[in-house]
Amino acid sequence: MIRLENIQVGYGHCVVAAFDGDLAFAKAKFISIIGTNGSGKSTLLRAMASGQHLINGNVFIENKNWNDYTAVERSKFISVVLTERSFSHFLSVRELLELSRAPYTNYIGKLAAEDHEVINEALESFDLKQLENRKAGTLSDGQLQRVLIARAIVQDTEYILMDEPTSHLDINHKADLLLQLRDYCHEHGKTIIYATHEIQLAMSLCDEIVSIHKGSIAHETISDFVKSNKLQEIFPSKHVAFENGIVQFKFDS
Ligand SMILES: Nc1ncnc2c1ncn2[C@@H]1O[C@H](COP(=O)(O)OP(=O)(O)OP(=O)(O)O)[C@@H](O)[C@H]1O
């Protein structure tokens, strides 16, 4: 379990978002983080991933303070899919996935048969087989997004944190991929926590939701959140209405 205790996240002394008490994320859950632009979704994800931007409070993984884990231990617990293109663009797709098996390889980094099997499965299930020899730097934004998600799955961690993982995907790939990730969580006992602006997909597919509004973080099941009718308050607009978590656009013709 990831437990955040009395956290305040932000920059310097400026708190962007906070929660008094314990925020706990159990195993086998598909969880979205929502909020308006600049509300603190990415900042919260970074605080969970590395303690970066954690102004106050503590992050515990399996009841042990995150600061007390070694780098290798950390890389077996949490993988991260961020929005930056922070990797070598000259690596092929397969090589990128191979590197993410590093926590499990021996001291010379030699991949075992099991590692190749995990990589082949990911290439297959994320529809990347035909791209495996392409240099990462030559991929479209949407193709790259699928590669980076596959890379996190190959890392095989208990928790995966993702920042807007479907922002570059077409509507088919968005729906397929989110469904695939939800099933992955439930079938493998893993937890994915992802920031998103895809409210309706989050309402339809997630087990739980973290919402950030006016600096306060809340954590609820999707059904409690939908019943509470908070969406209208979080996203006030005369052109957008929410009915049971379904987004409706209203424009005068
Ligand atoms: N490096 C930084 N230094 C100072 N303030 C920052 C920095 N990065 C982000 N911020 C500010 O922190 C706040 C939260 O930013 P964050 O990126 O976490 O929001 P977000 O909810 O992920 O937004 P979006 O939906 O637009 O991606 C914003 O007001 C932003 O301007």
UniProtKB/TrEMBL annotation:
InterPro entries: AAA+_ATPase, ABC_transporter-like_ATP-bd, P-loop_NTPase, Siderophore_ABC-ATPase
Keyword Ion transport: yes
ABC transporter domain span: 2-239
GO biological process: iron ion transport
Record membrane topology: Peripheral membrane protein
Keyword Iron: yes
Compartments it resides in: Cell membrane
Chief localisation class: membrane
A Pfam family hit: ABC_tran
Superkingdom of this protein's organism: Bacteria
A GO CC term attached to the entry: plasma membrane
Gene Ontology molecular function: ATP binding; ATP hydrolysis activity
Keyword tags: ATP-binding, Cell membrane, Ion transport, Iron, Iron transport, Membrane, Nucleotide-binding, Transport
Gene3D superfamilies, sorted: P-loop containing nucleotide triphosphate hydrolases (3.40.50.300)
Protein name per Swiss-Prot or TrEMBL: Iron complex transport system ATP-binding protein
Native source species: Nonlabens xylanidelens
